[in-house]
Design brief:
Layout: E1 6-9, H1 17-27, E2 31-35, H2 36-41, H3 45-56, E3 59-64, H4 74-94, E4 98-102, H5 114-126, E5 131-135, H6 146-156, E6 161-166, H7 167-171, E7 188-193, H8 204-213, H9 225-235, E8 241-243, H10 248-251, H11 255-267
Parallel strand pairs: 1-2, 1-8, 2-3, 4-5, 5-6, 6-7, 7-8
Helix pairs in contact: 1-3, 1-11, 3-4
């Protein structure tokens, strides 16, 4: 998949935002997934990061992460919509056209509001030529599998909302590459590769602990990453392919070392 843009989620790296961008660029990545926290930590904010990216790269795959937007209780709805507008402004300042908004993790999620919230989100984002990446996470209170998320997006048929395929969230619940069957390649906005040592216990805390601290680089665990990549290639997927690994040990390394290791892992699957 050598034609796919490559990216690194900056959550893997420690250091200042500028250091992270340089480490990702020097390792060979085309793009990065950047967090709002990175933007806020940068002196000069989004404008400074956009200048770095324009001058030397890498570009921005997306801005993360708009949490628990869909199905928010009515008392929080206006607040969440204002938060989306803030994310759009930051993304515009970065020169980025995509926001990541996972499915809700709230125990008090109002499931009956989700469709309306996604339609509103799509409409608001479209005003600024923005796209929304909807991610089913293993501990979400709704849409916690790729199949459920895809069924919702099919029903809503919003042209600027697509899926995030994250291998952890599929495989942590015992799934495999067959979960990609039937999903058109153009409705997948991004593929995040990673690995894990074992399937975690299925309670929320165990899933979150592994996801946020113990992921492995692809090829270092039990996930059949090759099978996922083969399926995507057969489907004609041409979108971003990259690394999203939350790993406490790797994050303690110098950013250039961790980024180089991530690139070596990704390069195994670029063929």
């Amino acid at each position: 998949m050598r034609t796919n843009p490559t990216f690194l989620n900056l959550v893997l790296l420690n250091g200042e935002p500028g250091q992270k961008l340089q480490a990702a660029r020097d390792a060979g990545f085309d793009q990065v997934e950047i967090w709002r926290e990175d933007v806020e930590a940068c002196e000069g904010g989004a404008a400074a990061l956009a200048e770095i990216a324009a001058r030397q790269g890498p570009g921005f795959t997306n801005l993360q992460v708009l949490r628990d937007f869909t199905g928010a209780p009515m008392a929080l709805r206006a607040q969440k919509r204002e938060e989306l507008r803030q994310f759009i402004q930051i993304a515009q300042a970065l020169g980025c056209d995509t926001l990541q908004a996972p499915a809700s993790t709230r125990e008090d999620c109002c499931a009956e509001l989700i469709d309306d919230d996604l339609r509103w989100m799509a409409s608001e984002a479209a005003r600024y030529n923005m796209r929304i990446m909807y991610e089913p996470m293993a501990w979400c209170s709704v849409d916690n599998t790729l199949l459920l998320a895809w069924q919702r997006l099919q029903r809503l048929d919003q042209p600027n909302i697509g899926l995030v395929v994250d291998l952890f969230h599929i495989c942590a619940r015992g799934g495999d590459a067959a979960h990609l069957d039937g999903i058109p390649a153009d409705r997948i906005y991004e593929v995040q590769l990673c690995d894990m040592a074992a399937v975690p216990a299925q309670d929320k805390q165990s899933l979150m602990a592994m996801a946020k601290h113990q992921r492995l680089l692809p090829g270092d665990g039990i996930i059949d990453v090759d099978r996922f990549v083969d399926k995507l290639k057969s489907a004609g997927y041409q979108g971003p392919l990259g690394i999203e690994v939350f790993n406490d040990r790797l994050k303690r390394l110098p950013p250039e070392v961790a980024a180089a290791q991530a690139w070596q892992a990704l390069d195994r699957y670029r063929r």
